[in-house]
Specification:
With 508 residues, this protein is an alpha/beta fold. It is built from 15 helices and 26 strands.
Amino acid sequence: MANTMTALLTSHPDTAPAIGAPGRDWLTYGYLRAHADDVRATLRAHGIGPRDRVAIVLPNGPEMATAFVTIAQAAVTAPLNPSYREDEFAFYLDDLGARAIVLAAGEEGPAFAAATRLGLTILRAETDAGMEAGRFRLTGDAGGTPAPDGTPGEDDVALILHTSGTTSRPKIVPLLQSNVAASAHNIAVSLKLTAADRCMNVMPLFHIHGLIAAVSASLQAGGSIWCAPGFDAMKFFGWMRDARPTWYTAVPTMHQAILTRAARNADAIAEVPLRFLRSSSASLPGQVMEQLRETFGAPVIEAYGMTEATHQMCCNPFDRQKPGAVGVAAGPEVAIAHETENHLIEGTGEVVISGANVTPGYESNPDANAKNFFEVAGKRWFRTGDQGAFDADGFLHLTGRLKEIINRGGEKVSPLEVDGVLMDHPAVQQVVTFALPHPKLGEEVAAAVVLRDGMEATEAEIREFARTKLAEFKVPRKVVILAEIPKGATGKLQRIGLAEKLGLVETA
C-alpha cells in the first residue's frame, strides 16, 4: 500500500484521465505527475521545504484539487475556506504557522490582506484558457534562499485542518502522509474503486470529505475526478451529462436538494447510470437513503467520518445497506468505550477508533490529547465524541454527538431519533432536532422543519404526529417551520447553537 501522497500516483498509466472540469480538457496522470514536479521546484525556489506549511485559498474546482495533491507531495498543505473574512484568515494562518499562501492570479481580497499583514510568501496559481483542468503555473516574487530539495516521508505531515468547534477555540489536526494514504486506500477498497470509476465532486475542497473521499481515494485507485465549481442543485444533472460519472459523494442536505429536482431530470439519470452514491459528514435520514436508491436505481453507501480519522471510519457495504446505520468498520478498528472512563464496553457508549488513518494527536494541545486519546493493552484509541452502539450484524448506529444529546430534566433524548420520526411525516422534507434552553429542565426538545413544496403542516400537527410515535418527553415542545435551515460552510446542519441562531434564546 502506498504510504505517501507521491506514491499514490506512481503506478497509473500516463495517458489515463485524472482531473476534469466543465469545458476543460482532461489532465492525465502523466501531466499530473509532471505538474507535481514543477510545483515542487517552484516551492523549493521560494525557500519552502518539505516541512513548511502552505495555505491554499482557491475557488472550488480543478485547480484546488491539483494544488492540494501536488503541494502535499512537496510540503504541508493547509486548505482554507475562501469565504473567510480577513481577521479569520489572519487567525488561521497565524495559528497553523503558515510559511506561504497560494492564491488565484489577481486575488487581492481578505486572504491576500491577511497574508500580507503576516509577511507570508505569496504564490499565485495562474491558468490560461487552453490549459487542461487543474493545470496552473505557480509563480511568486523572486528573492529568498532556495530550500534544499527533498520528498516528505510517511511520518511527515501532509495536511493540516482545524476542527470546526462551535463552543471552543478550533483545534489543529495534523494528518500525516501515512494517514492520508491509509484513508485513501480504505475508502478505495470499501467503495471497490477502479480505474474505470469517475467521481463527480461537488464537495468543498477545503474540507476532509472532498479532499480524501473524492480526490485522494479516486487517485489511489487510478480513477478520475470531475471537479464542479461547487454544489448547485440547479446544475447538477447537466453536470452529470458532461462528466459521465460512476458516482458522487455529498452531505445529506445536498442529496435532499438533488432529490427535489430529480423527477424533472429522469432522462439524465437514465442516460448516466451511477454505480453507487455515497453520503457522509452527517447522518443520512433513512427515508432519504430509500428515496435516493429508488430515484437513481443504485446503492446508497452511507459512510461515517471525521477530520481526526482522515475522514472515513465506517461504511455500509455494497451487499447490504441499512437505513439509519453508518455501516461497519471500514479501515480502522471501531469500538465502544465508557463515556468517562478509559475502557471499552459493550452496548451504548462513546464511539472510539484506532488505526493507521488516525491523527497522531492535536497540535500544541496536551489537554485535548489527554481528554481524547487513551490506551488499552498497548493500543491507542481516539474518542470521537459520538454516542452509538453496534447491532448484532456489526453495523454502527449513532445516537448523536455527546454534546448534542438533549438532557431534558435528566431524561436523555437522541436528536437523531426525533429526526427520524419527524421525517416520516408526509409534509416534512428536512428536519434538525436541537436543544432549547429551559429554566427548570435545563434543556427542552425543539425541532426546525422545512416542508415539502406544495404541502402544509402546522406546528401543532407536527407535534401531534410525533406524540403518536415518541414518549412524551421526546416530543418537541417547539417546532419552527422554516424555508431553509441554517447550514455550516460544508453544507452540514448544525444543532449546537441553533436555538441562538433562530432567536429562540432570551438574552438578558
